[in-house]
Write a structure and sequence with these properties.
The protein is α+β, with helices and mostly antiparallel strands and 106 residues long. It has one domain: Outer Surface Protein A, domain 3, CATH 3.90.930. It contains three helices and six strands, in the order ββββαβααβ. The protein has a three-stranded antiparallel sheet with strand order 5-1-6. Strands 2-3-4 form a three-stranded antiparallel sheet. A hairpin with a 2-residue loop joins strand 2 and strand 3. The longest helix has 17 residues. It is globular and about 35 Å long. The chain starts with 5 loop residues before the first strand and ends in a 15-residue tail after the last strand. The C terminus is likely disordered.
């Protein structure tokens, strides 16, 4: 069984929603990112308590006509990339909001 992944938004960013996209300024290198609509859905749903698989099923697959397995693989790749830039935190356990930055996965 594959362990679920939980996502939380980093507190080390500044973000602003513009239309269907979100602009994110990462504290790592003060880099500005524009999240496309799919990345925006993932970022907005990153509450630290909902597994990525459920986010993909309920938010991505319901919005787009995609194969659930492929959508999950694509989402995993995307969130790993966002985590590398300090935009999202990823953990194999729920990330408590009160725990500060949660457990970052390498």
């Amino acid at each position: 069984m594959i362990k679920p992944l939980y996502l939380a938004r980093s507190r080390r960013i500044a973000a602003r929603k513009l239309g269907e996209e979100i602009l994110v300024m990462s504290a790592r290198g003060s880099t500005l990112f524009t999240l496309n609509p799919t990345a925006t859905i993932l970022w907005q749903a990153a509450d630290g308590a909902t597994p990525l698989e459920r986010i993909v099923e309920s938010k991505i697959c319901s919005e787009y006509e995609v194969n659930p397995e492929q959508a999950l693989l694509d989402a995993e790749s995307l969130v790993e990339d966002l985590a590398k830039h300090g935009i999202l935190l990823i953990s194999e356990k729920p990330i408590a909001e009160s725990s500060g930055y949660g457990e970052e996965r390498p």
